[in-house]
Amino acid sequence: MLKNLIFLSFILLIGLFCLSGCYASKNIDSLAYIVALGIDVGERANLKISFQITLASNQSSEKSSGSTSQSTSTNTISIECDSIYSGVSLLNSYLSKKANFSHCKAIIFSEELATQGISKYVYTLINDIEIRTNSNVIICKNNCEYFIKNSQPLLEQLSAKYYESIQTSDSYTGFTENIQLKNFFLDLTYKYSSPYAVLGAVKTNNNNRCGF
């Protein structure tokens, strides 16, 4: 009798965990996905952070309607702040959705900020559990807000795919390099190596903006 009671309690305990839902689950429509993060020297604060945001609901509606316009699926918001974390907090207070960095493809530093030193910002980013360590690190000659807004893909419909293509274009061109956040961080901390990244800029060609 006691064995049967223990066995029944064990079965009920297993069923309790198997039938329980995910209490922390979130709908994708409640999140604002950051596909590119730009960090620049601020004018009224230490930093000026630019977030390129894409909404999953917009992307799905574009695919169903056949639209190829990038401007309707992405938006760039710039915030003056003293640290990366305070900038993210300000962004969340401004948006109606929570910012999510799990799909961030590019981390962009301005050349001006890079000359001052970016090690503390790299340490902050590498310790953030949402940011992927395979995100590309880019140094831009323009300010980050201008670079993100005007770096438009020619053959890709979505910015996320555009930034992701940098990781593979080094296999057939000699003008780019697959510099990921994890490798940049290791070179930064290792005393016998120096970190380096892709240098990007936005230029105009017959009034058409193009990226790096």
Structure description:
With 212 residues, this protein is α/β, with parallel strands linked by helices. Helices cover 37% and strands 23% of the residues. The protein has 9 helices and 9 strands. Strands 1, 2, 3, 4, 5, 6 and 7 form a 7-stranded mixed β-sheet that branches. It has a two-stranded antiparallel ribbon with strand order 8-9. Helix 5 packs across helix 9. The longest helix has 18 residues. The protein is elongated and about 80 Å long. The chain starts with a helix and ends with a strand. About 7% of the residues have low confidence.
What is this structure, in a nutshell?
The chain has 212 residues and is of the alpha/beta class.
Write the layout of secondary structure elements.
Elements: H1 2-19, E1 31-41, E2 47-54, H2 56-65, E3 74-81, H3 84-94, E4 98-100, E5 106-110, H4 111-116, H5 119-126, E6 136-140, H6 144-150, H7 159-164, H8 166-169, H9 181-189, E7 198-200, E8 203-205, E9 208-210
Parallel strand pairs: 1-4, 1-5, 5-6, 6-7
Antiparallel strand pairs: 1-2, 2-3, 8-9
Helix pairs in contact: 5-9
